[in-house]
Design goal:
Blueprint: H1 4-14, H2 28-46, E1 54-60, E2 73-76, E3 81-88, E4 101-102, E5 106-109, E6 113-120, H3 134-153, H4 156-178, H5 191-195
Antiparallel strand pairs: 1-6, 2-5, 3-6, 4-5
Helix pairs in contact: 1-3, 2-3, 3-4
Length: 208
Amino acid sequence: MTDQLSLYNGALIKLGQPRLNALTDEGKARRALDAEYAKTVKACLEAALWNFAMRFVQLETSPSVESNYGYQYVFDKPDDWLRTAGVTTDGYGKIPLLDYDDRASYIFADQSIIYLKYISNDADYGLDLGLWPQSFVDYVETSLAYAVCEEVTGSVDRKDRLEKARLKAKSHASNMDAMNEAVTRYPPPGRLVLSRGFSSRRRPDGLR
């Protein structure tokens, strides 16, 4: 399990700097990390459709906003919304709603109830550091190190190296997260099977 102090120290190690003993330690490095922490974590959460930060909710039409043209219904996005992963018409998240308008604070659609899958920065989702896999922790630490590098070390060369490391860490974290996706129990039939009109249902005469 990680926490803010361990994230700071992970970033400082990547910068070749001494670790902090506490979040109250005085010094340029801690102040720089404080200034960059919240927006760096937000940027990292927005960077991909992380499973640990994913939330699925039912939305009903907004009581305070009306649609004067186009789509019939308006929905307020949740306060903890960071990025939309999908909109569906059913509570199982299986039937996508294809016709909707996703705007800054609202979603517009032509049905009165919709279901939203999104990246959340709620304390029980994306901001619960205990849910973060180690690959995401590494990504955030590298991103923090990159964000404060010049201020703390004055090295442009080190920042260039951290930029490459940050992109690599993001790719690794995203790939690891994708491995946690739910997989289809039975894979879809291949093209050869489909081309032969194959059916898995047994015919009345016992033949397939």
